[in-house]
Amino acid sequence: MAAALRTRIPARLGGATASRALGMTPDGKEAGKVVGTSSGGRVRSFEEIPHTGTNRWLNLLTFWREGRFRLLHKHMESSFNTLGPIYREHLGLQSSVNIMLPGDIAELFRYEGLNPQRMVLQPWALHREIRGHEKGVFLKNGAEWRADRLLLNKEVMLSAAVKRFIPHMDEVARDFCRTIGSRLEDQTDGKHGKSSLTLNPSPDLFAFALEASCYILYGERIGLFSSTPSMESQKFIWAVERMLATTVPLLYLPSALLERLGASLWTQHATAWDHIFDHAETSMKRGFQRLSSRPDVGEVPGVLGQLLEKGQLTRETIKANMTELMAGAVDTTAVPLQFALFELARNPAVQESVRRQVTESVGRAQGDPHKALEGAPLLKGAVKEILRLYPVGITVQRYPVRDLVLQNYNIPAGTLVQACLYPMGRSAEVFDNPLTFDPARWTRMRQERADGGAAFRSLAFGFGSRQCVGRRIAENEIQLLLMHILLNFHLSVSSSQDIDTKLTLILQPESPPRITFRML
Ligand code: HEM
């Protein structure tokens, strides 16, 4: 079967466009000479890379009919099992070379260039074009991207910024636990003492992520734990989910044509983005008012306030980036938290060892949440484990700026190459006991592995200068909430069976797991 798939295909049907096959970069510049590693022997041509089928439209039809978009992560895993550690995929408008071994991924990143490029999310870009919105860093490229990104890094990535926002996240994480705690108390009767609360924590986790994001980004507490969630918040959460779910099929289809035809898939996508932009507009207006009318000492300016104060970005650019940051912030933290509660609950011994370390660290930190996190490497390991087993984004993409060799195949500059995180995270070739949730493995791996590729095993936030700009926000937010939950509650689940997952641009549980909380 694999041999049958290793047929040569004409260049016009291949993964690279003619210009790419001729060694051109996406900017149309001529590529340099072939560089990279090979395991010896003849370097094979791009066309010889195994593939899943070369008729991109037939492949797309099969995907559509079989509802495979939501299982793309599983499809990738089985394609690697069948075809080996490198293969080509041709799906509608997208063609890519997919890889999964850390050594190959390290090699890819060596060729990402000064202004690395990811796969263009065409439907997002079209929405900005049609509505006349500026693009944020997610959609910009080249020197323009770099200039905005360096300014954003100062407000969300550098350690001074992290120290500024950790206390605010800590405050929201405490509120989350108070809310669950008081619901638990309502259930407790005097006679039987400790009671338990079994629930789907997903709505509370989304509320936590939205509350924390608004506080950090706009400097605003929106009160999701003190009242019933506002329509505005619910609409926002719904809009982000809709936007994510409609993005995946649109990546492979001609969005511009669907827009002209008024296709429902496009209309749903554009409407969802409109809500997200409206939310940003309203939050920004409130932010401007607060900042101009109440310059009190102690007022939280948020990222918005910092960017306005520095005055280096135009208001349109700030709005574009605040919109992208908010759209990127909520699901990406709420969803890994669902997986984390589930894994901690179904692994009681691991839960206990993380709790022990967290309790000791909090004791030493004397009320400083930043220090408390620093003293609990198992908590960090737990988050890495969650993102290894359930990466939010299942691939990281790059267009190498020079030709390179991977697995002895020539990859022309400008080819879309995807580092496939989901299959890598579950591969026995890459991780010992890959399906075991083992937060301590990361400390062990650092101590045991001397090979330079070790670092390329934890790539959930991407790599290098184009890595996730919200990384520090996400890592700290997830760790802080887990820290407070472990300090307050014992977690369990009724069944330790694996949970099914689906892809809606980000990887999610098919249905959110129910967790039992018991007061410690
Ligand atoms: C666990 C949570 C998260 C994960 C796993 C994640 C993952 C990623 C990945 C893989 C990339 C592409 C990186 C690359 O190409 O090298 C990315 C980019 C990005 N993420 Fe995240 N993300 C998370 C949370 C967040 C949050 C909380 C925000 C906003 C506050 C955010 C905003 C963005 C933006 C704006 C980009 C584009 C950056 C650029 O191109 O310069 N992400 N993220």
Automatic annotation (TrEMBL):
Any GO CC annotation of this UniProt entry: mitochondrial inner membrane
Principal place of residence: mitochondrion
Keyword terms of this UniProt record: Heme, Iron, Membrane, Metal-binding, Mitochondrion, Monooxygenase, Oxidoreductase, Steroidogenesis, Transit peptide
Single annotated GO MF: steroid 11-beta-monooxygenase activity
Transmembrane segment boundaries: none
Positions that bind heme: C468
Coiled coil: none
Cofactor(s) required for function per UniProt: heme
GO terms, biological process: C21-steroid hormone biosynthetic process; cellular response to peptide hormone stimulus; cholesterol metabolic process; cortisol metabolic process; glucocorticoid biosynthetic process
Compartment annotation: Mitochondrion membrane
EC number: 1.14.15.4
A Pfam family recorded for this sequence: p450
Family, similarity comment: Belongs to the cytochrome P450 family.
Protein name per the record: steroid 11beta-monooxygenase
Organism of provenance: Hippocampus comes
